[in-house]
Amino acid sequence: MSELPGDLLYTSEHEWLRKEEDGSITVGITEYAQAQLGDLVYIELPEVGAEVDEGGEMAVVESVKAASDVYAPVSGTVVEVNTALVDDPEKVNSDPYGEGWMVRLEPSGEGTGEAMDPDAYQELLDELES
Amino acid sequence: MPFIPHTGDDVAAMLATIGVPDIDTLFDEIPRDLRVDGIPGVPEALSEMEIARLMHERAAQDAGMLSFLGAGAYAHHVPAVVWEIATRGEFYSAYTPYQAEASQGTLQPIYEYQSMMTALTGLDVSNASLYDGASALAEAALMAVRANRSVDSTRVLLAAGVNPRYRQVAQAIAGHQGLTFERLPLDAAHGVTDLDGLDEGGEPPVAVVVQQPSFFGTLEPMDALTDWAHRRGALVIAVVNPTSLAILKPPGAWGQKGADIACGEGQPLGIPLSSGGPYFGFMTCRQALVRQMPGRIVGRTTDVDGTPGYTLTLQAREQHIRRSKATSNICTNQGLMVTAATIYLSLVGAEGLARVASTSVARTRELAAMLTAVPGVRRRFDGPHFHEITLELDRPVAPVLSGLARAGILGGLDLSRTFPELGNALLVCATETKTEGDLRRYAEALAEAMRT
Amino acid sequence: MTGDATGQQGIRVREPLIFEKSRPGRRATAQAPAAAAEHALPAAFLRDDTPVLPEVSELQVVRHFTRLSQQNFSIDTHFYPLGSCTMKYNPRACNTLAMLPGFLDRHPLAPAEFGQGFLACMYELQEMLKAVTGMKAVSLTPMAGAQGEFAGVAMIRAYHAARGEAHRNEIIVPDAAHGTNPATATMCGCVVKELPTRDDGDVDLDALRRAVGPNTAGIMLTNPSTLGVFERHIREVAATVHDAGGLLYYDGANLNAILGKVLPGDMGFDVIHMNLHKTFSTPHGGGGPGSGAVGVGQRLAPFLPVPVVGREERDGKPFYRWLTEEDLPQTIGPLSAFMGNAGVLLRAYVYMRMLGREGMRRVAEFATLNANYLAKRLAEEGFTLAFPERRASHEFIVTLKREAKTVGLTAMDLAKALLDRGFHAPTTYFPLLVPECLLIEPTETETRETLDRFVDAMVAIAREAESDIERVKAAPRSTPVRRLDDVQAARRLDLAWRAPPAG
């Protein structure tokens, strides 16, 4: 089982987030999520400038056998999306924490909502495996 | 017991394997008081011979009329090959191609069909069919709302010549999601949308629907309407007759940017009239909108050996995966009709289809000339018509139609109730199936019916 | 390609696209008018190109599509135990009689006087469907099960709106339900509330009691359920929903299991859709055309989709005509341009007349006999039934959860291996609740020998999986194509043939 990057926070919906220096938050999905979904064929990203609510739908990831919503971990405005994913959705499978990043948000409030630290997320994963 | 092969020995052996004394015991989980002892409301069984006799009598009752009805369903010659092949057991009794390796006989024809429909409509991608032209329009409107992100509206405008029944169906299906359908004004002299009457006010439309040829048989100013719609930020939905696309400008070439979605009734492509169904709805669209398109889609790919093959794709949009967020709830569509249409288009090709179209146009023109020579009958609209024409009588239409029917002729569709503003209007259609003799027979019968 | 014969592998037919056989100027000249006519239409309306359609001879068309048909598995050629689809024999008489010229050539807008034969068949079909469902009124217009579902939910909404309760917009759907159920609820502008299913296959009544309330429009249920078992507490379910002011919708996809044994009307359902292309054996056609006729109780009768066939007396004889919005002012409206899939309805009519009341009862009896026999034999051979303590209805579920763990044999692998042995696979991975599942529905028209041969094939595959799983995972080998790259199909979309660039 691969290591969870220590500098990220995680949600129970299997998204990861990284607080950037400028206060924005980058969001993607975890190794576990991409493995569950299988080979991704399409990522539907939000428009830049769109407002999202914490826990609301932000993006959709589509594999051959499933289409899953990616939820916004915090409320805010979309400032950037990873357009490289349009032609290469595979990046989410091969490098979910790096080149597979999806959306960068300008949070409207403080804090990181319900997101948990790597240890807590690992516990959640361990429970799912059992 | 028709179609059930079990002998007494079979039943006994099977019950013994299961370990129950009789078949009735297999239903013991069903509460006793819910169980019925048969269905008295259903008549006793008929042998095939008996039901065949009954059906022959009933079919004969309905046969023998010379019909000049159109209005969304058209009589064209259906080559013998079409249904000989389409009703082969391997096509007829196969189902949804879930196991693609065992269903290339279904999947490849659909891919060929998709290719043909994109060619006819001048757009990029096609689905594998919807139920019929009317429900296809409903789905196209819902698709436009999903796809048109620049306009936050559920207001759909319909050109004046859109089939009124299609509007009713679209309202019945799409109205639940807040869509409204309004009709643009009619140019009463030409039977097309009145471009001077187009109003820029009100909520911006999410889509504008243009039917070509129109319900009245006239030809809408599709380029001007397309450009107007796009200027207002709306998507353009074309409702088109597939036979006409052999010679008319395809939706993909309408206006500056082309229509965004094309849909319509596929029945003219080798599907018999059959009292209204089964037909099929077709839908094509621009590449950028493909993920919003409802219905099944077949894609070409390769197998583990590198052999080309065909499979259902983009299924994540559909009900069995996306469930409550699916593009549509459609599952079973009109598969066998699509197989038939693909065979039909392969047989007639572009040249054959163009001849069917042009002959139908010419026949209608000839018929119109003969009928308007009868006193009291005139063309209702000026301007070019396709293979239908709206006539106006100097008296109520219904009794005239009854008189024609007594002479064995179904003269057309009485429009006076749906469109009272058009007066005593009659919609008449002649296709390539009508001979000179047929047209003359109608003209003579009409003269007779108008004499009394 | 043939099935049901041991040891026989099909001929691998590789058939190019019809476009690849085209030659410029080649035509099937018998099939269009001998010459082009003068259409005299203004140039502004005309296309300035020729659409790319095939240019082939009539024989090429015949050969192409005949060869393509030979690549299909079908009921006529293979045992096709696709759960929830009811792949029973499609009697040929239904086809030939529905295609008699008098029926085939009739225009939908021809007046009723010139359609009494057709309309008599439609009326009698309505009456028979009322009888087998225990419902008070029927509309034949929905063109598939999904459209029937739409009609049902739309009628429920119309009913509540007519009583001033339009705020009722919640539809309760079991989590095991077919995807069309929640998709339909959304199409009708409703909100879906999912209901958990218990381990024994029945709906969780406590969860249901918590789920109903003042916003409940209704519940959508299949009985027997998608899990292949009868919902034993159906009357409590009905009472709970009715007491909360909601209505019950019956998804009739599994009607084959209870035809003539139980009437959905008696179970408390207010509306039912039937899949005529399942229970009433109209052709599956490679994906339709189907028919989703709906039946309703008295409460919903005013809202039926139009048109419906009515019967009156004229000169002492029955006269049939279409009832329209004028006759049914509260109708949810028309769902098709004309009256639905007429030709399919004629086929269903012929089938029901040939079965008659005794024949229809036999359907459920023998469908259930075959399913229980097959389930028992597979269980005896070591396969795991999802609900071993329950009676199978007309279908049952086998789960390969154990085999997937022990030897890596998945439901997908088994399905593909069955193809090589001349059987179409059962439904796989539905319902989603049961992991690695096969939903198996033999239907009543299959012989015991066929079922036994199917068991033999399943056993052989399981055995092969234990000794050589890679060989099983390489299946199918004998079909026209082998396992297809679905990921590529979705990533690199190729949805239409394009002529290669000239030169």
Any overview of this molecule?
The complex is a heterotrimer of chains A (130), B (452) and C (503). Chain A is α+β, with helices and mostly antiparallel strands and 130 residues long. Chain A has 4 helices and 9 strands. In chain A, the strands form 2 sheets. In chain A, strands 1-2-3-9-8-5 form a 6-stranded antiparallel sheet. Chain A is globular and about 35 Å long. Chain B has 452 residues and is of the alpha/beta class. Chain B has 2 domains: 66-76 and 350-451, Aspartate Aminotransferase, domain 1 (Alpha-Beta Complex); 80-344, 3-Layer(aba) Sandwich (Aspartate Aminotransferase, domain 2). Chain B has a 7-stranded mixed sheet with strand order 2-10-9-8-7-3-4, with helices on both faces. In chain B, strands 13-14-17-16 form a 4-stranded antiparallel sheet, covered by helices on one side. Chain C folds into 2 domains: 94-354, Aspartate Aminotransferase, domain 2, CATH 3.40.640; 362-488, Aspartate Aminotransferase, domain 1 (Alpha-Beta Complex), CATH 3.90.1150.10. Chain C contains 14 helices and 13 strands. Chain C is globular and about 70 Å long. The interface between B and C is large, with 199 and 199 residues.
N→C terminal distance of chain C: 39 Å
Q: Level of helix content of chain A?
A: 10-25%
Enumerate the strands of the largest sheet of chain A in spatial order, edge to edge or round the barrel.
1-2-3-9-8-5
Number of helices of chain C: 14
Features:
heterotrimer; A: about 130 residues; alpha+beta; OB fold (Dihydrolipoamide Acetyltransferase, E2P); 6-stranded antiparallel sheet; 3-stranded antiparallel sheet; 4 helices; about 20% helix; about 30% strand; globular; C: about 500 residues; alpha/beta; Aspartate Aminotransferase, domain 2; Aspartate Aminotransferase, domain 1; 2 domains; 7-stranded mixed sheet; 4-stranded antiparallel sheet; 14 helices; 13 strands; disordered N terminus
Give a quick rundown of the structure.
The complex is a heterotrimer of chains A (130), B (452) and C (503). With 452 residues, chain B is α/β, with parallel strands linked by helices.
Question: Which SSEs are present, and which pair or pack?
Answer:
The complex is a heterotrimer of chains A (130), B (452) and C (503).
Chain A: E1 9-10, E2 15-19, E3 25-29, H1 31-37, E4 40-44, E5 51-52, E6 57-63, E7 67-71, E8 76-81, H2 84-87, H3 90-94, E9 103-107, H4 118-129
Antiparallel strand pairs in A: 1-2, 2-3, 3-9, 4-6, 5-8, 6-7, 8-9
Chain B: H1 8-18, H2 48-62, E1 66-67, H3 80-86, H4 89-92, H5 104-121, E2 125-126, H6 133-147, E3 155-158, H7 164-174, E4 180-183, E5 186-187, E6 192-193, E7 207-212, H8 222-231, E8 235-240, E9 261-265, E10 281-285, E11 297-302, E12 308-313, H9 319-322, H10 335-372, E13 377-379, E14 388-393, H11 397-406, E15 409-410, E16 413-414, E17 425-429, H12 436-451
Parallel strand pairs in B: 1-15, 3-4, 3-7, 7-8, 8-9
Antiparallel strand pairs in B: 2-10, 5-6, 9-10, 11-12, 13-14, 14-17, 16-17
Chain C: H1 58-69, H2 92-98, H3 101-104, H4 116-133, E1 137-139, H5 145-162, E2 170-174, H6 180-187, E3 191-195, H7 205-211, E4 216-222, H8 234-243, E5 247-252, E6 271-274, E7 294-296, E8 308-314, E9 317-323, H9 342-380, E10 384-385, E11 396-399, H10 401-406, H11 411-420, E12 427-428, E13 437-440, H12 448-467, H13 469-473, H14 486-491
Parallel strand pairs in C: 2-3, 2-4, 4-5, 5-6
Antiparallel strand pairs in C: 1-7, 6-7, 8-9, 10-11, 11-13, 12-13
